[in-house]
Design brief:
Number of helices: 13
Number of domains: 2
CATH class of the largest domain: Alpha Beta
Strand content: 5-15%
Radius of gyration: 18 Å
Largest sheet: 5 strands, antiparallel
Shape: globular
Bound molecules: 6-diazenyl-5-OXO-L-norleucine
CATH superfamily of the largest domain: DD-peptidase/beta-lactamase superfamily
Distance between the termini: 22 Å
Order of helices and strands: HEEEHHHHHHHEHHHHEEEH
CATH topology of the largest domain: Beta-lactamase
Length: about 300
Amino acid sequence: MTSNFKSIIENAYQHTKPLKDQGKLATYIPELANVNPDKLGVHMTKIDGTSFGVGDHLEKFSIQSIAKVLSLALAVKFLGEKIWTRVDVEPSGTKFDSLLLLETYKGIPRNPFVNSGAIVICDILISHLENAREEFLEFVRDLSDIPNLTYSDNIADSEKATGYRNVALCNFIKSLGNIKNDPAEVLDFYFDMCSLEMNCEQLSRTFSFLANGGKKLNDGKKILTSSQTKRLNALMLTCGFYDESGEFAFKVGLPGKSGVGGGIVALYPNKYTMAVWSPRLNANGNSFKGMKLLEDITTHSEMSIF
Ligand code: DON
């Protein structure tokens, strides 16, 4: 890691830490309300393998929707292009848990990152894998190099007890013919998938294959083709922040994905992956300080994909 990047990251952390945080914790999943809201961490992994982090970057948090990129990667690996007949690739312009457009588009979610789309991806994985829950976990263990990674039962149970909107989404899509399995089984897998926990260092390493043409950094193992990698990065740019995807591209200028645990991962193809964590969310469900911190880094490094 060049000292230049280190000081840009350190300065961005120092600028962001004291900002008045206008966001709120995601309390609709009760377990997420128990997190210290003042946490702030950032970690960058460059594709030369060097890495650097500041603040609470080694503390685990719930990655939530960030995991939707990983389930999509596994589904694309198995299904290839056929997958796009089940989910579309358009920004939704709606909140992540919206039911609004499903009727209009006959049960085809706008993209794989809104909850409806990620639920359909879970259904696809259940149809194509012997044991989707275990095989998805194995896939993420391999990507992250965390051999003992497990789902968090506390988080999954907490969401399961209150996830009425997701239950509604899954049943509604089933009624429109785009869920093939038992909705209860699909939802169980969806809640487990969202319950994975990682720290910023692990998250930036896990996503580095997407900055490296689809190959893992440490052993060069091919996870996706370069075309599939392009597709996932394009979807993160256009749909990764729901109704704030335009704002993220405008201010940060990188493909990325947020989660209601307050994490964001963003990447610069062929250069680096960054993960930030700050639990208070803005009105669109994205980390308030996480977005500010990333904006500071791309502004001061004068490096964005644009
Ligand atoms: O389904 C949910 O509502 C959560 N498990 C995931 C939502 C999420 O992370 C949205 N991201 N900003």
